[in-house]
Amino acid sequence: MSTSPNHMHLAAFVTAGPGRPGGWRYPGSEPNWLSASYYQHIGRVLEQGKFDLMFFADILSVPDRLSGSMDSQLRYGSLGSLRLDPTPVLASIGAVTDRLGLAATVSTSYLEPFPVARSFATTDHLTDGRAAWNVVTSFQDSEARNFGKDRHIDRDKRYQRADEFLEVACKLWDSWEDDALVIDPDAPLFADPERVHHIDHEGDWFSVRGPLNVARPPQGYPVIIQAGASPKGRDFAARWSDVIFCSHASLESARDFYQDIKSRAVRHGRRPEDIKILPMATPVIGATSQAAHEISRELADLVPPLAGLSTLSYHLDIDLSGLPLDEPLPDADVPGVQGHYKEVVELTRREGLTLRELGKRYGGRTEGTFIGTAAEVADGMEQWFAEGACDGFTVGATHAPRAFEDFVRQVVPELQRRGIFRKEYEGRTLRDNLGLERPAVGAWHHRRYGV
Q1: Keyword annotations for this protein (predicted)?
Q2: Is 1 domain-assigned?
Q3: What are φ and ψ of residue 225, in 5° steps?
Q4: DSSP SS3 for 447
Q5: Which residue has the higher pLDDT, 21 or 168?
Q6: Which of 38, 46, 186, 432 could form a disulfide with 51 if both were Cys (CB 3.0 to 4.6 A apart)?
């Protein structure tokens, strides 16, 4: 089922933990991160707002990149201070929702294709076709040491492994043909052996015989999400992704990224509309513009500079502790997430921020375009959408669940009145609602090789 090209898509960026170092301290934040009911409530709210999907970020360690210590992460409730495994969290949300897509982050660097493919196939079946996988290539030594490695895999090899990982996962999803599960008690024929196949994969990274012991997912393949920003990451995303999550400090940089990814998709034999690009937006909504900016300042005041710098150190994979706090971030060769580095460099140069000020801003993560009344927030989102910077947004919450409640209650109706966001879901599956085709058996080959 297709969706209107004039309608934007909305994902929600959620963490199975406190998320923002200032937000968890703000009134309206609920500290129920270890309770299924907390995430189920957010899921219900998002489904009421007709969001396409709920996207859980994840990491595989408590970061210690700043000063070689976990102190700033744990003390201030930063990025990785507490993270539940998102997969069972999704299962709990799937049980109380009917249309909302459910995405979990799973790394290709330290896990194996068979259990990952099996987990997402199971989730897709149990939710009637609403599963999505945010594919990441882990990059921190602290994560590697939790999997028996001294150091993480270097960037080129991480993407080589990820390419093969996706190939194997897709082969496993394809190991059952769509009509292989017969369930004919009279024949008797449970599953047709002629339609279930070994994959016999032998590659540089993996040796997997198959088949999967789960029937082919309702969506063919769960929706694939990726966030690559480096040249290799962008190529990987343009080949494999159905949805791209990204972060930009300005409309101009978002538009450049959008055009680049769509062009890369075409070069890889795909259509521009096959990939939905949803940049991060973290709105702050007030009854007046002045009230919204006051809320933003209050949130920023709750962020200790070291909390934001701890998260930035993790994202850049650079220890920032030895740099002067009252001078700008210097140019650096970044081994970590290049997209975040480009974003903070643009922000630093545009606003003349010191490292201390950058730490507070990065910890708060509120984009200035989306601070104001509900109508003003909708104005900013409509501008980005209309001017070719995105296909919609990944909406973050400054404090949860209240910020999601405010967005659904105030901004979603404004977007609907303008005719740029749905009033009802278009279909049953996540692919239906995103306007994406269901991949046929073997579709992975075209994505990886372009033929």
Answers
A1: Flavoprotein, FMN, Monooxygenase, Oxidoreductase
A2: no
A3: -115, 145
A4: helix
A5: 168
A6: 46
